[in-house]
Structures are given as C-alpha cells and as structure tokens.
Amino acid sequence: MTMTNVRSLKVLHRSQAALCLILLTLGAGCASNKPAAPKEYSFFPVAPDEPRIQYLMSFGSEADLGGNNKFNAFVVGREKLHRPIWKPYGIAATPGKLYVVDTMPANISISDLAKGKLRYIRPAGDGAMKVPVNVAVAKDGTTYVTDTKRGQVIIYNAAGKYIGVIGEKGKDKPCGIALDADRIYLTDLTNHCAQVYSQATRELLLTLPTDPTNDESRLYQPTNIAVDREGRIYVSDTGGFAVQVYDAQGKHLRKIGELGLTPGSFALPKGIGVDREQRLYVADASTGVIQLFDREGRLLMFFGSPSGSQAGGTYLPAGLAVDYDNVSRFERYVAPGYGIEYLIYVTNQAGPNKVSVYGFLKKK
Question: What's the rounded Cα separation, in Å, for the pair 59 and 85?
C-alpha cells in the first residue's frame, strides 16, 4: 500500500469519526452491529387476557410530534421551536388535526399530524380566552370553546378569527361541549343542567333534565358531554359521581355509576366519549383510569393506571375524544398482527404525557 493510500484511509477514517460525533451530538448515534432491542408494547387488559386497547404514544410539545429537524437546526444554526402544551383539558379531532384546550396559557393548540407542527389560537380583544375548558370543531372548521370565567362559548372561524359568542356573561358557566350535524350540546355548571342549541340560529332548543326535581335524572356538577350517532346525550356529572344518559328528546334513559373506587363506580368522572357501537368511555381524574361501558351501561374493561406507573399510565386525566379519521397517522405504533379500529385520546393535566393516544385494536 502506498503512502498516498494510507493518507487517504486516515482522512476517510477521520471523516467517518467526525460524522459519527455529529450524529451522536444530535441524538442519532452511529450504526452498530448489535441488533435492535425488540419493541415493547403496552396492552389493556394485560396478559394473559386478549388485548383490546394499546397505548400508542404521547406528546406534550411540537418536538414530540416530529416537526423539528435536529440535523437542519444544527447545520443552519436556527433555534428550534418547542411550542409546549402546559395544562390541557378538552380535546377534539378533525381529519389531520388535533385541537387541545390549554387552560394555563388560555389558548387552543392545533397539532398538524401530517407536518408534525403545532400552532396556537390565542386572540386578543373580544375573542380573548380567560379560562377555556373544552372545545368542539364543526366540519367547516368553526371552533367552539367553553370559557368558565367568561361564562360564554367563544366562537372562531376556521382561520382562528373571533366571530361571536353563545350566552351572557354572569348568567351561565358552560363547561362541556359537543356537536352533531345541526346541534350544539353544552353543560352548565351554574344552573346544573345541559343545554341543546341550534347550530344555525344559536337558539336554545332543550334543557336537561326536563324534570329537575327527579332525583334519578338530576345533574349536580355536569362537566363533560358527548352525543352518539343516534342522538343519545351522555353527561359526565362530576358532582353526582355518575354519567347520565338521555335520548334526543331529553327523556332520561339511565344512570351509569355511583360514588366509589371499585370498577363500575366513579370518584371524579370528567372526560367522556362514545364510539360508533355506543360504547362509552369515562375518564376518572381521581382514580386515574378510563372505564369502558357497553350501550346498556355494563362495564367492559378499564385502562390507564394512576400516576403513570406504567407505559400508557395517566396523570389527572381530564379530556377524552374518540377519533376514526386519523387512524393512519398512528398505525406505525401498532403491535404486529393488529390494526386499529379507532383512536382514543386522553389529556393529562399533570406529568409529561400531556396527550396520550390509544388504539382500539382489531386482529389482522
């Protein structure tokens, strides 16, 4: 071998070492002959029971969504944007996007799942939020936000511009919100009721319960609300330690749960959601679990764990949403041999996992 070849090899080795050092600095590491460790998956219920739900991933900032390119930031010298979520409550999904209410900075974060980017709705003036809690988004992008301090529902267009309100300041205290094709469903903490409005006219159509003196259907501290494909209305009654269910005309159908710490009961029920088979999900902020019931109110299973003691654990869970539109965005996290029927999002008001994503599994 000539001296020229030796010098060339030394230069090549130095270049490889320098590249490896850069990759290590960026957290990418160098290639290794060691095989990658097998990926661990978090299922509910745990083995030996057949898994029905899998914890997929969590995020608390734009960086967790994969929108920041560390290599480009290193080479170009630009400071990467963190864009965190601080104390989330309500959550809503549309195709390609997740809307999260962040109560601490009083804004709405909108996550673009395709680009891995996050932006905020944080208007000033008449459209400013004070204590936003829950959010719902119509098909045209109109965004409805309940604000318990303003005592109103604030309405923004698809571009995030303020366009109006529902309610008078000091009269109501809206908390939960849900939409269907032509109605707006709200919970009202001040008046201990749920209200149904027309989307087109914002006219009040119905107040629940229709008989507030009936102990079985009464609402004490209604926080969250959901509606299924048949128009049934589900109200999470935090102060009543139950979920109340009404039909589309307001007739009381059933009460699910009671005060307790055993499966099927509640200590602090908050976020709720319903899938297409009328299975009901209820997040309990006190016990730190999400319980799943069938359409008749019978307990099927529960998932999550207090204080995040395992992967997929929860930290003061508050908001919940069921989503069929963005399944493909999370399929890469699914265990081999399974697919996802739909997604379940849970917001956590404490801990690092501000938004946790779960998949309802189906076998391939």
Answer: 9
